[in-house]
Amino acid sequence: MADGITVTKLNAWFGPSHVLHDIDLAVAPRAVTAIIGPSGCGKSTFIRCLNRMHEVVPGARVVGTVLQEGQDIYSPGVDPVEVRRRIGMVFQKPNPFPTMTVFDNVAAGLRLGGVRDRGVLNERVERALHAAALWEEVKDRLGKPGAGLSGGQQQRLCIARALAVEPEVLLMDEPCSALDPIATARIEELILELKRDLTIVIVTHNMQQAARVADATGFFLLGELVEFGPTSQLFTKPVDKRTEDYITGRFG
Amino acid sequence: MAVVFGRAGGAGTATPTIPPLVGARRARRRFGDRGFREITRAAGLSLVVMVAGMAAVMVHAAWPSLRRFGWAFITTSNWDPVAEQFGALPFIFGTLVSSLLALLLAVPLGLGAAIYLSELAPRAVRPPVTFLIELLAAIPSVVYGLWGIFVLAPWLRTWVQPALGHTLGFLPLFQGPPYGVGMLAAGLILAIMIVPFITAVSREVLLAVPRTQREAALALGATGWETTRVAVLRYGRSGLIGAILLGLGRALGETMAVTMLIGNRPEISFSLFVPGYTMASVIANEFTEATSDLYLGALIEVGLLLLVLTLAVNGMARLLVWSVGRGPTVVRE
Amino acid sequence: MTTTRWRQRVSSLMAILTAAAAGSVILPLVLIFGFLLWQGAAAINVDFFTHLPKPVGEVGGGMANAIIGTLILLGLASLLGLPIGILGGVYLAESRDRRLPWIVRFLADVLNGVPSIVIGIFAYTLVVLPMRRFSAVAGGVALAVIMLPIVVRTTEEMVRLVPASLREAGLALGVPEWKVVLRVVLPTARAGIVTGAMVAVARVAGETAPLLFTAFGNRFWHQGLDQPIAALPLQIFAYAIAPYDDWHRQAWAGALVLIVLVLAVSLMARLVTRGRVGAVR
């Protein structure tokens, strides 16, 4: 199906520095695609280019095509706000809105998008919290501040917040880097659960994590996509010498 | 899991129609973003318009006086509303002398207090003393004036001025009958008013000096004071000068307390015991009495001079304070 | 060895000297508050809060009209100064324009240093001359102009303190930028912005000079926004320089009330931030 994302000749800059070089990559629909690489390799920039979040940073620039549902999200006339509505994102550090309750956090995207109907909000919030495997833990404290949850719960709250607007793709930028192992395990379970309905792209600095959750994995180095393929193949029979060095820990 | 997440069309099935990314809502959204940006920009611009407008409006209103007197306005000392002769020299003199006198008293105390609070005081002492000094900065000018009239001036008249007259009376500075009110009282009240301000800004400047500077000096075996002198004060020097200039800027424009204590007599004298007059005070006292355009123009020209003077002093001060460490920060006043 | 001891002595001496400086900075505070409490408390009574000033020669009366006048002036100033100031601060924090924000920031600092009496002249030429009358509005404009730079700069700082991650979270939900600012960024910075606004109000509450020829003062109850209006600082000034003992007593009482008002607003401003610091950091 056309649900995936096709990236062609993607280049990105921060001011004068050229941080992504000619990236070509196809993200399969309803699967998990992992992006790995050492820090500073451009993997976060890459994922932020997929929903036009890169350009939010002053001085940042993108050239190339990113086809989602057959449409180039960078073609002139495309509204970045609409793109982000369809392609949600979860960030490295949990960032619930501190002034909002658990419920309001999840409802934020809907409310700000103009949904007023209380019944619709209730239903969508509950569904998103179930989907983020958080419902049982927070159903009695929906009116409490979202910032009062534990780190892992906060991150799942952010996932629920992203899911509530019903995106087609979910981008996750090192979603577990601020979490303990138990919370990490829950998020990983969740990712496997979510991929039945969603296309997921996850950036991680943790190779084991990529091996556990991803169907396909791409290895980035110095702003280039060195190798991309099915996860099992990339980790067992890497084609490129640099990939092999990295996954065997002989790198840098 | 009981509820499976999915799109409205039902989980797992392909969405039959793909809505375009370019939607009708886009136009409205664009409008929202643009509108919001324009509204906030207008608020920012209004500040620019206001400052420009302030200068223009004042020059316009002062025009009769500017044209009539030219440079003589600031070089002559005859201020006679009845004869419509206006020379502002005594006010300029009074403003400068009272402000400099205030600085003379306030700078050592203010810097000393700032050094104590940021470097030498025991940790437990710092917050309460800082808080008290902030309180001092919150007292309105008119309250200082009230206290000055009924406490400070009588005290000066009965104790300080006679004592100074006896011991240092051979100096022209301390000659003349003790009125209480006069240049000395004005300078003193100004000093009391600007000292908390100088302390607060200097303290911020000192706190902005990097820790590593202090540690470097301490590691060389410097004592507490030597560390302050060699590492901290030298590093923060331009910021401290800025703090002093900010204090001067306040003293120059301070109105009420000075008006209540300086005696309001347009006279140029070397003695600190003699009443004087300042630019701000003459505006405060005579503005509502100014009936002719020329008189009003002359008073507004005094205001313009005051504006230019304080702008110059403050401009220099800001640049100096900014130059230390953190760049432009809000300086609370 | 002796030089070391000498150096230690110098260091202790400087500690003592600077402590003395700090002490002498605080001394006037003690003196001023002492006299305010002593003189003010003696003169204050119920009439002071409920009655109009008595004509010259009659003992008694109060400053009720001036207290109300000050509150009206503060209300007017806030109404004019806060919205523009907050929007201006948001502009400085959010804008990607190149030159204008720098100019606005610089002018805000410049305006902050302009003597308040000069602001009074500005409000006079702007409002009093065209209306041909002293008025509450003119006083409100003068105070608003003084508040503006404070509000602009504190709002800017507080909005900047909001982590970029929250803004990004909003944008990533497919929410337009202006809504993210209004519904996510500003509420998060609210405590700080409120504090800034209150600091600004406390600052102008005691201003006298800019009211002399704008609000002008009035011996009667509030008569409309286009009429001269009484204000506590104006009344204190007028009574302090008048030759009547009873008026002097009332001036002390007025000063006590004014300082309590100013300190109450300042303290509230501190409490607002203390309670909500966690929200921003």
What distinguishing features does this structure have?
heterotrimer, A: 252 residues, alpha/beta, Rossmann fold, 10 helices, globular, B: 333 residues, mainly alpha, MetI-like fold, two-stranded antiparallel sheet, 12 helices, disordered N terminus
Could you give the topology of this structure?
The complex is a heterotrimer of chains A (252), B (333) and C (281).
Chain A: E1 5-14, E2 17-27, E3 32-36, H1 43-49, E4 60-68, E5 71-72, H2 80-86, E6 87-90, H3 102-112, H4 118-131, H5 135-138, H6 151-164, E7 169-173, H7 181-194, E8 199-203, H8 207-213, E9 216-221, E10 224-230, H9 231-236, H10 241-247
Parallel strand pairs in A: 3-8, 3-9, 6-7, 7-8
Antiparallel strand pairs in A: 1-2, 1-4, 4-5, 9-10
Helix pairs in contact in A: 3-4, 3-6, 4-6, 6-7
Chain B: H1 25-69, H2 72-75, E1 79-80, E2 85-86, H3 89-120, H4 126-138, H5 141-168, H6 183-207, H7 211-219, H8 224-235, H9 237-253, H10 256-261, H11 279-286, H12 293-323
Helix pairs in contact in B: 1-12, 3-6, 3-9, 3-11, 4-6, 6-9, 7-8, 9-12, 11-12
Chain C: H1 2-43, H2 46-50, H3 64-94, H4 100-113, H5 116-131, H6 136-161, H7 164-172, H8 177-205, H9 232-240, H10 245-280
Helix pairs in contact in C: 1-10, 3-6, 3-8, 3-9, 4-6, 5-6, 6-8, 7-8, 8-10, 9-10
Explain what the structure shows.
The complex is a heterotrimer of chains A (about 250), B (about 325) and C (about 280). Chain A has about 250 residues and is an alpha/beta fold. In chain A, about 35% of the residues lie in helices and about 25% in strands. Chain A has a single domain, classed as P-loop containing nucleotide triphosphate hydrolases (Rossmann fold). Chain A has helices spanning about 45-50, 80-85, 100-110, 120-130, 135-140, 150-165, 180-195, 205-215, 230-235, 240-245, and strands at about 5-15, 15-25, 30-35, 60-70, 70, 85-90, 170-175, 200-205, 215-220, 225-230. The radius of gyration of chain A is 18 Å and the shape is globular. Chain B has one domain (about 90-325): MetI-like (MetI-like fold, Orthogonal Bundle). In chain B, strand 1 and strand 2 (about 85) form a beta hairpin. Mean pLDDT of chain B is about 85; it is low at about 1-15 and about 325-333. Chain B is mostly helical and about 325 residues long. Chain C has one domain (about 65-280): MetI-like fold. Chain C is built from 10 helices and no strands. Mean pLDDT of chain C is about 90; it is low at about 275-280. At the B-C interface, helix 1, helix 3, helix 4, helix 5 and helix 6 of B face helix 1, helix 3, helix 4, helix 5 and helix 6 of C.
